[in-house]
Each structure stands twice: as C-alpha cells, then as structure tokens.
TrEMBL record:
It is found in: Endomembrane system. Residues 349-629, 996-1256 form the ABC transmembrane type-1 domain. Pfam families: ABC_membrane (PF00664), ABC_tran (PF00005), TMD0_ABC (PF24357). This is ABC-type glutathione-S-conjugate transporter. It comes from Crenichthys baileyi. GO terms for molecular function: ABC-type glutathione S-conjugate transporter activity; ATP binding; ATP hydrolysis activity. The keyword Nucleotidyltransferase does not apply. InterPro entries: AAA+_ATPase (IPR003593), ABC1_TM_dom (IPR011527), ABC1_TM_sf (IPR036640), ABC_transporter-like_ATP-bd (IPR003439), ABC_transporter-like_CS (IPR017871), ABC_transporter_C-like (IPR050173), P-loop_NTPase (IPR027417), TMD0_ABC (IPR056227).
C-alpha cells in the first residue's frame, strides 16, 4: 500500500526549493478532512427532511436543480473511479500487482458523500426562510482547497513526462472533471436560493436573503451604505426588522421567562419575610396593629432601621441601608431571566470570541518564525512566503470572528434593551396604585433610558469577564516560554497596577454619582421651567431661573473638572504600564545573567505578547466598574418590575349574570392597607340602561368608576361586568397625533360611523375652523385645543369605539351649557348615539337627571339612594339636599363665563326650564366659545402651521383642508457633512492656545514611542555583536536606562496632553451650555407651542451630555491613534522602502471606504438622535428608534470588516517585503516592522471608528448651536 511508504518520504518532499506533499497524504488525509466535516454537519441539514415542512416543497428553483445536477455528475465520476479500479484489478490484461486499497475506498466514500449532499441540499430547500447552507459552502470550500494539492501534483507529473504523456489517463481525466464540477458547486453554493414567497420580504429586508459569504462580510449592507453616500438617509429608508428582532417577539419571549423567574423570586421573598417576622416576634420588636398588613409592617421596620442608621456612623448606615433595601422586594431574578431569554446568542458570541482570542496568539508565534527565517540565510524562500500568507490568513480569520462576535454582542445589547423597555412599558400600564405612588414619571423614563441603556452597554462586553483572564493567562504562558522567570517582573508591575486602577475607578464612581445628582437636579429644574415657560415669561422670571440653573451647572462643571483630572492620572498610568512592564521584564532578563542577551526573536515576540496583554488589562477594571453601575440599575429595575400589579381578578366577566354591571357588597380602597373609600356598595345595572351617579364633591363618584375599571383594591365583595368598556375621564387625555387618530384610537376608519360621531359630538364646526380639518395635528397634551374641545374629542373617541358599557366621568363639565345639552341629546341621552348601550354618567348637570333611567346618590363613599329622578325628589332624602345645594351655587354664580380651566367641582347648573334659543344656532355657540378661549392666549403667529390665525380659515375651501397640517413640525435635522464651522465653533469654545499645545504634546508622545521602539530594535542587534561574548554592564545599563526613559516620557506627554484637553473641554462645555440656556429662555412663546418639551429637553440632556463627556474622550483618543497610525506607516516606509508602492493605493481605498461609511453613519446617528426625542415626550414611541440603531450597529461591522481587511494587507505586505529584502535588512527591523504592522490593523479600525464617532458626536454641537441661534423675542 502507498500509505506505508508515506512517512519515509516525508522529509525529502519538504526540504527542497519546490516543496510538495506526498501522494499518500493527498489521497488520504486531504480527502478525509472535507468529508469528515460534511458528515459531522449533515444532521443539522437532514433534520428538516424528518419534520413536516411549512414551505412550498413542490416548487424547485433553477438554482436548486443546477446544484443537484452538479452533485449527480460528481456521483457519476465517483462511480467511474470505482469502475476504473475494478477493471484494472480484474481485467485479463491487468498485471499481477495488487492495487492500493485507497483506490477502492475513496470512490466509495465519495459516492456515499454525494448521496448525502443531495439529501442535505433538499433539506436546506425545505427549511423555512433558508437561502443557503453555511456548512455546505464550507464543505465545498474545504474540498476545493484540499484538491489544489493533488491538482498541482498531477500537473507537475504530466509536465515532467516526455511528450506530455500522462501515466494514468482515466484517473487524470476523472480528477480534473470532478475538480471543475467542485468549483462550479462552490460557486453555486455561494448564491442565494430565494423561494418566490420570500422575495417580497427580501426587498424589505436584504438581510433575510443574505448568503453565508454576505453575512460574514456584511455585504448585504452595501446597498444601504451606497444609498447613504448618494443621498441623505431618512427614516423611511430604514429596512424592516427581522421577526426575531422585533419588539413583539423579544418582549413575548422575555415575558415568558420573566413570569417564571419573578414567581420563584416572590416565593423566596415571602419565605424570607416569614423567617424575619418569626425572629422579630421572638425579640418582641414587631408591634404592628391588627389592621396593618404584612407589607406595612415590613416598610415600618425598614424606616426604623434607616432612622437608627442615621444616628450611627456613615459606613454602618450604608451597609444597613443596602441590606434593608435588598429585602424590600423580590430580587435576583432579572439576570437569570435575561440569560434564559438570550442564551443561544450568548453562547454563539462566546464561541466566536474564544476562536478570536486563540488566533490572536498565533500571530506572535508566526512573527517569531519570520524573524528566525530572516536570520537563517540558508532557509528556503518558500518558508518566508508561507509565513507571510499564514499571517494574512490568521489575520483575516481573526477579523471575521471578531466582527461576528461584535455583531452578535451589539444585537444582544439591543435585544436586552428592547426587552427591558417593553417590560417597563407594560409594567407602567398594570402597576398597582401603591407602586404608582412610589415612582414618578421622571423615574420611569430614567429607568427606560439610563438603566436599560446600562444593560445594553454591559451586554456588549459581557464576554470579557472570562476572555480577559484567559488572554492574560495565555500571554503569560507564552512570555514564560520566551523569557523564563523574568516574566514575573512584568507580571508584578501589572499586578501592582490593579489596586491603583481599582482605587481610581472607585474614586471615579463617587465623582460620577455626584455628577449624576447635579445632572438630575439641573434637568429637573429645566423640565419644570420648560413646562411652565408661559408663567415664567408672564412674570419675567427668566433671569432668576437662569441663575439657578447656572449655579447647578457650575457645581456640575466643578465635578467634571475633578473627573477630568482623575482621568488624566489614570491615562498616565495606562500609557506608562506597557513601557514599565516591558522595561521591568527586559531589565531583569538581561540583569539576571550576562549570558542572557536580548535577541530580535525574543524582544519582538515579547513586545507583541505585551501588546496583546494591554487590552485585557485596561478593559478589566473598566468592565468591573461598568458591572458595578449595572448592578445598581439591576436593583432599580428589579424593584420596579417586581412590584405588585393591579389585581386582574377584581372584575369578573361571568356571562351567566343578567345585568350588564353588578357590584355586590363592595369595599374598595386606593391602597392595599388603607381604609376603604367606598363602603358596602351594591349596584345592579341592566343592559342598555342610563344611570347617573351624583353626590357632593369627594363623595366617591370618580372612585366608583375607577373600581369598575379594576383600578382599586377590593377588600370585600365582587364586581361583574359583561362586555367591553369605554371610559371618558374627567380630564380629557389627548395624544400628540392628528385629531382623527385621537378619535379612531387604533380602530379601523369607517366613514359613515365616523361622520355620525363627529356630528353628534358637535365637532363639525371645530373641524371647519381647524386648518386641516380632522387631519390637523394636535400638540402635546392637546395644547391647540380648548378644554371643551378636548372633552368632545375624548367623548367622540368613546362613541366611535362601539363598546358595550360607557363610563362617563363628568364629560359635560368642561363644555359650554348649549354644547352640553347638544351632547346629552345626541350622544348620551335616551335618543343619542349610545341609546342602546349601558351608560354610567357621573354628573353635576341637574337638568339632565329627569331623562335618566336611574339615579345613584353617593354620600361619603356609600350609596344612600337609588331610584328614578321623580321618586328620589319626592323622598326628600340626600338627593333633595344635593339639588338644593347646587341650586344655591347656581344662584351665586355670576353669568360671566370663566376661562376654560374649570376645576372639577366648579361646574355649571342649568335649570330645567332653560333651553337653547331658536335664534342662536349651535355653530355660533361653539365658534364663539373657541374664539373666546383662544383670544386669551398669546397668538401673534405668522406661521401657517398655527391653527389660531383664523381670520380667513372659516372661508377655506374643502380642497385646502384636505392636506394634513402639522402643528408640531418634524424635528429639523442637518444633512450632509458636518459643517467645518461647527468643528471650528467647538475648537473656539475650547480655546486656540489649548488646542495648539494639545496637538504639539501628542506629537511629542508619538516621537518618543517611535524612538523607544527604534532603540529596542538597535538593542536586539547586540545579540549578533556580542555573540559568544560577555555582555558589557555599561552597555546593558545604557540600553535599559534609555529604553525606560523614553517609556516614561511617553506617559508624561500623554498626561500633560490629557490634562490640557480636559481643561479645554470643560471650558467648551461651559460656554456652549450658557449660550443655549441664555437663548432658549428668550425665544418667543410660539416656539414652545410648536415644539414638544421633550425635544428641547433632549438638547439639555443627551446633547449636553455628549459635549461634556463623549466628545473630549473621543477627541483625545482620536489624536493619539491618528498620530500612531501615521507614525507606523512612516516607520514601515523607512525600514522597507518597497512599502511606499503599496501604501498609496491602500490609502486611496481606505479613504473611499471611510468617506462611504461616514456619510451613512453620520446620518444614521442624526436619525437616532431625532428618534430619541419622542422617548422623552411619550413612552409609546420608545421603540421607534430601534431599527435605526440596529442599522447603525450593522454599519459599524460593515466598516470594520473592510478596514481590517486593509489592515491585514498592510501586515501581509510588510511580511512579504521582509522576505524579499531579507538579505539587506537586519532581523531587528523585520521584527519591528511586522509587530508595528500587526498593531496597525486594530489602530486603523479605531481611527476610522473614532473619526466617524467624532463626526457623528459633533452633531451634538450642531444641534445645541441650532437652538442657541434661534430668533429672540423683540
């Protein structure tokens, strides 16, 4: 057999100028590798053959048929190979020599494999939404790569033969035929096989139709990048999300796991409480009264503990506070819920991270081989080329794995944030009153924005928790192999850095907490100011409030300065660390023994290993600090989400009852442990009945409706309701949407029903006055509607809903008396739109009571009387007293009509005799009322979007009103490149002097860095000079001293640069905020009426935060990395002049990729900023920005993979030129140039990322200056 001779021939095959693999290896190992891979992966593809498929299995695409035909042809070649062997073995002409077994086994193996491939390809077709198979593509790729070796072997052999005669023609022909078919199969497997039903989906979301190659290189994102480069992207250009990334899908899965985990946590919490209660009773501490529930006892206990804590010293107080806080709610369930919901994506990303980490350590080993290759002049040239190619392959694989890891982590972060935001939103809708009392709207928004974002940030880098220690351990092992025990000196320096970093991180956390307090304080007062801006302007209080905000801002800037100085110190330590570590290691290495001479191999392999160590060491403290912050957010979220919900079992829906609404012996309270507000309530309302609920102020009328809605705690009794409910609250709730959307409220538009409702609710005349009829946009909180109009819109919403039961909480109180009469007649009354529905009307309008079927009289939370209007009047009970009281109030009221802001009890009473005068039509009444209400407002508005410039509006033709008119304009958004003037504005705010010195100092730092490495390169040449000689101590000391001094100089320059930049950034922050505040308080009132508060607040919150923290940090990193890249490229051109040939085309490609990327990235960031504003204005729109942010994350991966490819080419060419010019260049410079090039991949990536981040973050300056330049009041 051929295999037996394999090992003997191995050496001779490789040790020559034109190396080759033995034939036996080509026919065994290289065949088994791809086949083994396919056999391992095939179950995954075959599973869908066993399941019932939901896709159209009858339809076969042309691509699928081509794939199957190619595999069938390959099957025939395998059978052909077997026949050739059999003929050779058993034909009469055969020589007696036994044919090798491999000629039997290989065709059989291939034949079975091709049948398996046919089945796998059919399995892929049956999979839902599968367009290709990654495992099949990789199989074809492996097969083609492995077949390249026999391909060139057979070709060489054929060329060596005289007259080109081929020894084994049938096999030669069969091999090349099958190789050609394999290449065709590889190309076909790289194409997308999109079924007809999925074509529409792929148009909306190209990711759904992306093949394996496209997915790993993010090629499917090209169309978005090109579109972003050609034109300005808008929200409509965003693609649809995949179903698994939609909020509904994520939320459903998260909720499923949350229910179980939270249930378990509640059980644990109850057990803990029981144990605590038993202990405290034993000590005689618990003295809760019988009426107090368990919850109240606990909360009192917490209060007592807190009071005691105050008296004790600070540390004890903190500890007690923390432990008590923990026991106050079900805890330790959120992280497990998140893990269970997203475990697969976590495991996938961990796998990619592990592969990337392990590959990172291959490069230093290849570098070591490369240096020894340049030193050993006798080694063959092909070895050098092999190392150069391997460096490229390793770097490429590393890039692919890293970007897959990042993409999964960013998607995971987005999903976590989405899940938390959706859970919070759902929680807000079902929170019990006890919980609602504890948390303000501001706190909830904060949970949604800040705390959910913290989880997003920490999940992006969660794998570093195990990856950093792994990288550190592997680096140390390799360093030990290079330098032996002297590695310990470097490790000791690193270990010493950890507590210093920990101390700084702790201090930074304290400062950050202080900073957040100032920020919260400032935003709170800004929110109050913006919401009450009308009053502020009326009393000319702007200067005093401005001073208040400026004072708080002053405190904030003081803290920021402290933080900046601290950052400078930690940056100094971080930049000194690598220099100190390598200095300590090399100094100990050469100092321990005079035999230890630093060679180029040792020095540069160690340097590249130290470079690998730098990242995990700097990331670990940051990650720990981030986890500490997230732990605080976790507590806050667990407390909020773990709170009690409204009891869903309070209201029953039993169809066996005859009545529409039935309450039996009901006792209802707003809080679990408080005394009931409604006592002994029993009520029975027949379907289709009209019932009025009357009573004095505070008698519990609105509470009764809340009880029917299930919003109060039921301590006794039960409620049964049959059918759906519509509710009209006392204070109308209006959305920031069009008037039509407010009425439809998610229902389908039906013209006839809609027109009937409009007419019945007296909205017809209003629509004529509104600039765009029912398509006019209503501002925040219904700012452009009067109180009466809001109430009628609210009533129209209920009337349109077609519910079975209508709960009407005094809807006629805010409208004019004539309009009230009309609404009662046309909507609520016996002949109104809702005449066949069950209506419960809370009212003070006594004139309507005679038309009502049943009147319920409430006194002090109890039903005192129920009956018809006449019977109750005759009984002379509580109802008569109520009537007398309101008659007197009516007599005392003046007839002058008040402003539209009525208090709930300050309402009109119309005597029975009063009716609408025949000569005063309803339209006039409504119009008069609207004109009167609008005249009070400051309405000198020239813009057409205001609905209050009404002189000619009533005469508009229907065509004019058809087009939707917006009151709240879309948020303006700059397009194209960030103007240079914006950058100049920021630099000017920083100060020109500061900017010059910062640039100069960073340049000096870079010079020191290059100097240090050149010195090291020169140092390694001593190994050749002092070969087999004693190393002179003076020489050793000089080498170590200069190396150390240059390292420290770098640190010092970085420290000075960061310090100056920090001072400059604080200056800029101060100036930009002052300008913004000064201007915003002096813009006309019309601006605030047409701009949501959230939009203005967004400038003071997100944009100022970006200017304060993100821009300075990025600016400093950007300068450092940019100069680093330029220094590296300069050095590479210096050592290997060939490099200049490559650097020019690479720079051109790099520039275009960057321009392409930045155009799209910048616009996506602007879109994200704009889509974030509604989060501050309204919870419901929180998920609107998700598709943009998701697109933004894919965008980054798209860029990274292309840049890393360019960086990998730099490494490849650096290695290639080192091989080409190995006779004219010393090994020290080879080591230095390749280790520089290895570093350039990452740095290049960072420079472009930071350039785009900086450009997209400068948008904050642009947005702030936009509001700083608004036209002021005259």
């Amino acid at each position: 057999m051929a295999v037996s001779h394999c090992s003997l021939k191995n050496a001779s095959y490789v040790e020559r100028e034109d190396p080759d693999l033995p034939v036996c290896v080509e026919q065994t190992v290289l065949v088994w590798i791809p086949l083994g891979f396919l056999w391992l992966c095939s179950p995954w593809n075959l599973m869908s053959l066993c399941r019932r498929s939901r896709v159209n299995t009858k339809h076969r695409t042309k691509l699928y048929l081509c794939k199957q035909i190619v595999v069938l042809l390959l099957f025939l070649t395998a059978i052909g190979g077997l026949i050739v062997t059999l003929l050779e073995d058993f034909s009469p002409n055969s020589s007696g020599e036994k044919i090798s077994a491999v000629y039997y086994t290989n065709p059989v193996l291939f034949a079975v494999t091709w049948i398996l491939v046919l089945l796998c390809q059919d399995g892929v077709r049956r999979k839902e939404r599968a367009v290709d198979s990654a495992s099949l593509f990789l199989f074809w790729l492996l097969l083609v790569l492995c077949d390249i070796f026999p391909f060139q072997t057979l070709l060489r052999e054929a060329l060596k033969q005289t007259h080109g005669n081929v020894r084994d023609v049938p096999r030669f022909f069969l091999f090349y035929t099958s190789f050609g078919l394999e290449v065709i199969a590889l190309i076909l497997s790289a194409l997308a096989d999109i079924p007809p039903e999925a074509k529409e989906l792929v148009k909306k979301n190209p990711e759904a139709g992306a093949v394996f190659l496209s997915r790993i290189t993010f090629h499917w994102f090209n169309s978005m990048v090109v579109k972003g480069y050609k034109k300005t992207l808008v929200q409509e250009d965003m693609w649809e999300l995949n179903e698994v990334e939609s909020t509904a899908y994520i939320s459903q899965h998260f909720n499923h796991h949350m229910q179980y985990e939270l249930g378990q946590a509640r059980i644990r919490y109850q057990k803990k409480l029981k144990v605590k209660l038993i202990k405290s009773r034993g000590k005689g501490v618990e003295e809760a009264s019988p009426s107090n529930g368990l919850g109240k006892g606990v909360s009192q206990d917490v209060l007592m503990m807190e009071e005691k804590g105050k008296k004790e010293d600070e540390k004890k107080k903190k500890k007690k506070g923390e432990t008590k806080e923990e026991t106050n709610y079900p805890n330790s369930w959120l992280v497990t819920t998140l893990y269970k919901t997203f475990k697969w994506i976590l495991i996938e990303s961990a796998f990619f991270k592990l592969l990337q980490d392990l590959l990172a350590f291959v490069s230093p080993q290849l570098l070591k081989l490369m240096i020894s290759f340049t030193q050993d002049k006798s080694s063959y040239a092909w070895e050098g080329y092999l190392y150069a190619v391997l460096l490229l392959v390793v770097a490429l694989l590393q890039s692919l794995f890293l970007q897959q890891y990042f993409q999964r982590c960013f998607v995971l972060g987005m999903k976590v944030r989405t899940a938390l935001m959706a859970a919070l939103y759902k929680k807000v809708l079902v929170m019990s009153n006890d919980n609602r009392k504890e948390s303000t709207v501001g706190e909830t928004v904060n949970l949604m924005s800040a705390d959910a974002q913290r989880f997003n940030d920490v999940t992006n880098f969660i794998h570093l928790l195990w990856s950093c220690p792994l990288q550190i351990i592997v680096s140390i092992v390799f360093l030990w192999m290079e330098l032996g025990p002297s590695t310990l000196a470097g490790i000791a320096v690193m270990v010493l850095m950890v507590p210093v970093n920990g101390l700084l991180a702790n201090k930074a956390k304290e400062i950050q907490t202080e900073n957040m307090k100032s920020k919260d304080k400032r935003l709170k007062i800004m929110n109050e100011m913006l919401n009450g801006i009308k009053v502020l302007k009326l009393f000319a209080w702007e200067p005093s409030f401005q001073t208040q905000v400026e004072d708080i801002r002053g405190e904030e800037l003081k803290v920021m300065r402290k933080f900046a100085y601290l950052t400078s110190v930690s940056t100094f330590i971080a930049s000194c660390a690598p220099a100190l570590v390598s200095l300590a290691t090399f100094a100990v290495f050469v100092g321990v023994s005079s035999d230890n001479i630093l060679t180029a191999e040792k020095a540069f392999t160690s340097i590249s290993l130290f470079n690998l160590l730098r990242s995990p060491l700097s990331m670990l403290p940051m990650l720990i600090a981030s986890i500490v912050q997230t732990a605080v957010s976790k507590k806050r979220l667990e407390k909020f989400l773990g709170g009690n919900d409204l009891d869903g079992d309070i209201v029953h829906h039993d169809p066996s009852f005859n009545s529409a609404v039935s309450i039996c012996d009901g006792f209802f309270a707003w809080e679990k442990d408080s005394d009931p507000l409604l006592k002994n309530v029993s009520l029975d309302i027949k379907p289709g009945g009209l019932v009025a609920v009357v009573g004095a102020v505070g008698s519990g009328k609105s509470s009764l409706l809340s009880a029917l809605l299930g919003e109060m705690h039921s301590t006794k009794g039960f409620i049964n309701i049959q059918g759906s409910i519509a509710f009209v609250p006392q204070q109308a709730w209006i959305q920031n949407a069009t008037l039509r959307d407010n009425i439809l409220f998610g229902s389908r538009y039906e013209d006839k029903r809609y027109q009937d409702v409009i007419e019945a609710c007296a909205l017809g005349p209003d629509l004529k006055l509104l600039s765009a009829g029912d398509l006019t946009e209503i501002g925040e909180k219904g700012i452009n509607l009067s109180g009466g109009q809001k109430q009628r819109v609210s009533l129209a919403r209920a009337a349109y809903s077609q519910a079975d039961i209508f709960l009407l909480d005094d809807p006629l109180s805010a409208v004019d008396s004539h309009v009230g009469k009309h609404l009662f007649d046309k909507v609520i009354g016996p002949n109104g739109l809702l005449k066949d529905k069950t209506r419960i009307l809370v009212t003070h309008g006594v004139s309507f009571l005679s038309y009502i079927d049943e009147v319920v009289v409430l006194v002090n939370g109890q039903i005192s009387e129920v009956g018809s209007y006449q019977s109750l009047r005759a009984s002379k009970g509580a109802f008569s007293e109520f009537l007398d009281a309101y008659a007197k109030e009516q007599d005392n009221q003046t007839h002058s009509e008040d402003d539209e802001h009525h208090d709930a009890e300050d309402l009109e009473f119309i005597p029975d005799t009063e009716d609408i005068q025949p000569d005063s039509p309803l339209e006039d009444a409504v119009s008069h009322m609207m004109k009167r209400e609008s005249s009070i407002r400051r309405s000198q508005r020239g813009n057409t979007s205001s609905i209050r410039s009404r002189k000619s509006s009533s005469l508009r033709t229907p065509e004019n009103t058809k087009k939707s008119q917006r009151l709240i304009e879309k948020e303006t958004m700059e397009t194209g490149q960030v103007k240079f003037s914006v950058c100049l504005q920021y630099v000017r705010a920083m100060g020109w002097g500061y900017t010059f010195w910062v640039l100069f100092i960073y340049l000096m730092q870079n010079v020191a860095f290059i100097g240090q490495n050149l010195w090291l390169s020169d140092w390694t040449n001593d190994a050749v000079e002092y070969y087999n000689q004693t190393y002179a101590p003076w020489k050793r000391d000089t080498r170590v001293g200069v190396f150390g001094a240059l390292g420290m100089a770098q640190g010092l320059f970085v420290f000075l640069g960061t310090l100056l930049l920090a001072k400059a950034a604080v200056n800029a922050s101060c100036i930009l905020h002052s300008r913004l505040l000064n201007n915003i308080l002096r813009v006309p009132m019309v601006f605030f009426d047409t701009t949501p508060v959230g939009r203005v607040l967004n400038r003071f919150a997100k944009d100022i935060f970006t200017i304060d923290e993100a821009i300075p940090q990025m600016f400093s990193s950007w300068i450092m990395y940019l100069l680093g890249v330029l220094g590296t490229l300069f050095f590479l051109c210096l050592t290997t002049p060939f490099f200049i040939i490559v650097i020019i085309p690479l720079a051109v490609i790099y520039f275009f990729v960057q321009r392409f990327y930045i155009a799209t990235s910048r616009q996506l960031r602007r879109l994200e900023s704009v889509s974030r504003s509604p989060i501050y204005s309204h919870f419901g729109e929180t998920v609107s920005g998700l598709s943009v942010i998701r697109a933004y994350n894919h965008q980054e991966r798209w860029l990274a993979i292309r840049l890393q490819f360019l960086g990998n080419l730099v490494v490849f060419f650096a290695a290639l030129f080192a091989v080409v010019s190995r006779n004219s260049i010393d090994s020290g410079l080879v080591g230095l140039s390749i280790s520089y090039a290895l570093n350039v991949t990452l740095t290049l990536n960072l420079v472009v990322r930071l350039t785009s981040e900086l450009e997209t973050n400068i948008v904050a300056v642009e947005r702030v200056s936009e509001y700083s330049e608004l036209e002021n009041e005259v």
